[in-house]
């Protein structure tokens, strides 16, 4: 049995302190169903302490008053510390959420390091002040930190979603109370150690593992100036409603039901590996997953056959094995959610092309076969609702206008891709899709560019200059006009 990683203190305002209560969170491995970690469960009293420390540090401490170069120096040390410990970070994430280790190294740990790096570059190139010529006289435009930030992050890609909030918040001069998911608190403790070693001043960062009740208390706190959240649409709506009471600023990165369009002239051999990667990365537990694949009627049978073969060949198993492509679902509840949707799809009349059940020989762990439905109508629940697992819909379309219509016929608008005979043709399609990020003849996610969604996929952007600006308030200072000669 794996030794239990146990933490007894909370990181509040840069110090390791005793929690207010005695409740704990048990971290259970989705691969072994064994308890692998235990941390304190933050209580509302801990939230009050953390927010008070952040408020004091923002209102009176050195962090917001440092020069950008001074903050850059400290955040660079955080980035370097995460790089030094990236393998440990990846293994912790895999232990907690079952993410395949190859994905955890590349897309969990190293992507977080890259996000810190690109945000550092943005901060270095963005002046805190600039002068403009106004209609009535000169203007001084200042960019100032928004204040105390509550960052609430999910379990599926914990460190990347943390980096998308923490890096710009810190570099802008904000103070942060981080609330990681109760499924993945251990990697947040490692991050706290890195930040402590980097020399963050007192009060700038707190880390509070907790459930939804404590999260609700945090986001509604009157001394919080901004909430940055990644998670479900339902939770995002609740956060937005709570934030409205105090006019708290929000950035919400929510769900997706992204469509991949294969045009008639697409190179299927080039597209298929990318489609499979885009659909099943992180065992399908990704908001950007390509869960709807749109195939032209003229090539539908060919695409269905090749895609079925590719999906059925994916290796399911131990997430610590570098050869594994599909690890377990994060919880038994999440696997049952997927199984329920598979039953719904069959009841709706979709054709199960491969998968649909629990893999043979994997009785321990919350494993699920990678599943592909064919003959899916876009109005079916399996095509409209986010399942968050390895369940994919293959949808037939008649012409390009029909493909664009189907891709846009969704309450979500987070990501997507198109495969065309030429890049120019693909870009033409990309311009017609209502989604926040899109790929043409490739499947990419780049932390240098803004990321976020249209419609129910969220509000605001993370990463890039746009993500940095979300942690700043803009002030206009009117200057006296120069005296005339």
UniProtKB/TrEMBL annotation:
Entry keyword Phosphoprotein: no
Phylogenetic classification of the source organism: Bacteria, Bacillati, Actinomycetota, Actinomycetes, Kitasatosporales
Molecular-function GO terms, alphabetical: aldehyde dehydrogenase (NAD+) activity
CDD domains: ALDH_AldA-Rv0768 (cd07139)
Reaction catalysed by this enzyme: an aldehyde + NAD(+) + H2O = a carboxylate + NADH + 2 H(+)
PROSITE patterns noted in UniProt: ALDEHYDE_DEHYDR_CYS, ALDEHYDE_DEHYDR_GLU
InterPro entries: Ald_DH/histidinol_DH, Ald_DH_C, Ald_DH_CS_CYS, Ald_DH_CS_GLU, Ald_DH_N, Aldehyde_DH_dom
Superkingdom field: Bacteria
Name recorded for this polypeptide: aldehyde dehydrogenase (NAD(+))
PANTHER family: ALDEHYDE DEHYDROGENASE, ALDEHYDE DEHYDROGENASE-RELATED
EC number(s) on file: 1.2.1.3
Residue stretches making up the Aldehyde dehydrogenase domain: 16-477
UniProtKB keywords: Oxidoreductase
Active-site residues per Swiss-Prot or TrEMBL entry: 253
UniProt enzyme class: oxidoreductase
Pfam families linked: Aldedh (PF00171)
Sequence similarity: Belongs to the aldehyde dehydrogenase family.
């Amino acid at each position: 049995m794996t030794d239990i990683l146990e933490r007894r203190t909370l990181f509040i305002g840069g110090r390791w302190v005793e929690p207010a209560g005695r409740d704990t969170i048990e971290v259970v491995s989705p691969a072994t169903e064994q308890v692998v970690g235990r941390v304190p469960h933050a209580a509302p009293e801990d939230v009050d302490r953390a927010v008070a420390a952040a408020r004091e540090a923002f209102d009176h401490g050195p962090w917001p008053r440092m020069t950008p170069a001074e903050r850059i120096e400290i955040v660079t040390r955080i980035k370097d510390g995460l790089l030094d410990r990236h393998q440990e970070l990846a293994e912790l994430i895999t232990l907690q959420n079952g993410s395949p280790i190859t994905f955890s190294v590349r897309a969990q740990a190293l992507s977080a390091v890259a996000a810190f790096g690109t945000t550092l570059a943005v901060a270095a190139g963005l002046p805190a002040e600039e002068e403009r010529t106004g209609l009535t006289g000169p203007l001084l435009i200042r960019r100032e930190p928004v204040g105390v930030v509550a960052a609430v992050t999910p379990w599926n890609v914990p460190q990347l979603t943390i980096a998308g909030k923490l890096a710009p918040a810190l570099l802008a001069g904000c103070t942060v109370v981080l609330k990681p998911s109760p499924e993945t608190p251990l990697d947040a403790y490692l991050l706290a150690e890195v930040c402590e070693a980097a020399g963050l001043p007192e009060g700038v960062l707190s880390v509070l593992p907790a459930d939804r009740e404590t999260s609700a208390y945090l986001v509604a706190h009157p001394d919080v100036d901004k909430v940055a959240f990644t998670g479900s649409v339902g939770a995002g709506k609740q956060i937005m409603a709570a934030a409205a009471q105090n006019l708290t600023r929000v950035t919400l990165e929510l769900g997706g039901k992204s469509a991949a369009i294969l045009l008639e002239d697409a190179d299927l051999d080039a597209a298929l590996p990318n489609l499979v990667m885009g659909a099943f990365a992180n065992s399908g537990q990704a908001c950007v997953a390509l869960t709807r694949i749109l195939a032209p009627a003229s090539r539908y049978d060919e695409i269905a056959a090749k895609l079925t073969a590719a999906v059925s060949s994916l290796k399911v198993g131990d997430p610590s094995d570098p050869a594994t492509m599909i690890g377990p679902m994060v919880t038994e509840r999440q696997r049952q959610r997927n199984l329920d949707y598979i039953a719904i799809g069959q009841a709706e009349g979709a054709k199960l092309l491969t998968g649909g059940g629990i893999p043979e020989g994997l009785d321990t762990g919350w494993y699920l076969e990678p599943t592909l439905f064919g003959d899916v109508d876009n109005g079916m629940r399996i095509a409209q609702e986010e399942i968050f697992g390895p369940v994919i819909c293959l949808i037939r379309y008649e012409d390009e206008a029909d493909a664009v219509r189907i891709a846009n016929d969704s309450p979500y608008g987070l990501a997507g891709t198109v495969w065309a005979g030429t890049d120019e043709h693909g870009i033409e399609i990309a311009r017609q899709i209502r989604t926040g990020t899109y790929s043409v003849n490739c499947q990419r996610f780049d932390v240098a560019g803004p990321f976020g969604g249209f419609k129910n996929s969220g509000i605001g952007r993370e990463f890039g200059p746009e993500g940095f600006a979300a942690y700043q308030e803009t002030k206009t200072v009117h200057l006296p006009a120069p005296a005339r000669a």
